[in-house]
UniProtKB/TrEMBL annotation:
Transmembrane segments: none annotated. This is SDR family oxidoreductase. Keywords: Oxidoreductase. It comes from the Bacteria. The keyword Oxidoreductase applies. Belongs to the short-chain dehydrogenases/reductases (SDR) family. The keyword Oxidoreductase applies. Pfam families: adh_short (PF00106). Gene3D superfamilies: NAD(P)-binding Rossmann-like Domain.
Length: 260
């Protein structure tokens, strides 16, 4: 039985991906700091093929413990590590708190780096395995008002491309998801310098939300397909097109705070 370990499995994209993969016969490991969220997700899945692991992706010790636990349950298999946990940070960069910057870098980048590094032996021991990282449309072109978030997602994009080349000899495929805005608890984070949430800011900008079920299907296709990066949603596709074919126009829109 194939096995996937999902960080950020307590809600949102992680929950939707868990449901899709378990429906298709996989064993699923759910990892998250939110123990209540883990229980809610697990209640939607068959107990005999689901395990919950409370962990902080910023902790190498947690990674070591959870990977060992999951490997014991899966018979040593790790077909997919879904490096999905992340935090949103929004607002003017000049007003960003240093603690918020550190938290975003630690979770969105270092957590992904730790996961990739610690999972490498397990992925290498599973023929045809895949490391799937959640990047973002914000990793296609830098997003004003989300500079720190964009920086971390550009880094995840770069890591994905580097490891796709480096780990090919080990029969490990490395992929990323690059979704636009997804209406998940992540968007309830506050925007620095205001009393608005990230979600409210997205709505005011006139940008669309992509359903988590669409992202889950994209995750399945990314794991089984040949593309390094999978664009998800209209915003991501528009950004990709504009950054390649209309970079000047895109820059003007970003400088003017206009939606795509």
């Amino acid at each position: 039985m194939k096995a996937i370990l999902i960080t950020g499995g307590g809600s949102g994209i992680g929950r939707a991906v868990a449901q899709l993969f378990v429906d298709r016969g996989w064993r699923v490991g759910l990892a998250d700091r939110d123990s209540a969220g883990l229980k809610e997700t697990a209640a939607l899945l068959p107990a005999e093929r689901t395990s919950c692991h409370v962990m902080d992706v910023r902790s190498p010790e947690d990674w070591e413990e959870v990977l060992a636990e999951f490997a014991q349950l899966s018979g040593g298999r790790l077909d997919v590590l879904f490096n999905n946990a992340g935090v949103a940070v929004g607002g003017p960069f000049g007003a960003a708190g240093l603690e918020d910057i550190d938290r975003a870098v630690d979770v969105n980048l270092k957590g992904v780096l730790y996961g990739a590094r610690m999972a490498y032996p397990f992925l290498a021991a599973t023929p045809g395995s895949c490391l799937l990282n959640t990047a973002s449309a914000a990793g296609i072109y830098g997003t004003p008002g989300a500079a720190v978030y964009s920086a971390t997602k550009f880094a995840v994009r770069g890591l994905t491309e580097a490891l796709d080349g480096e780990w090919a000899a080990d029969d490990i495929r490395v992929r990323s998801l690059m979704p636009g805005f997804i209406d998940t608890p992540l968007l309830q984070a506050g925007v620095g310098g205001s009393n608005r949430s990230v979600r409210e800011t997205v709505v005011e900008a006139g940008l669309e939300f992509t359903p988590v079920e669409v992202v889950a299907q994209a995750a399945w296709e990314a794991v089984h397909g040949g593309r390094v990066h999978t664009l998800v949603g209209k915003t991501a596709r528009r950004l990709s097109f504009a950054s390649r074919w209309m970079p000047g126009s895109l820059r003007k829109r970003m400088r003017g705070g206009r939606a795509l």
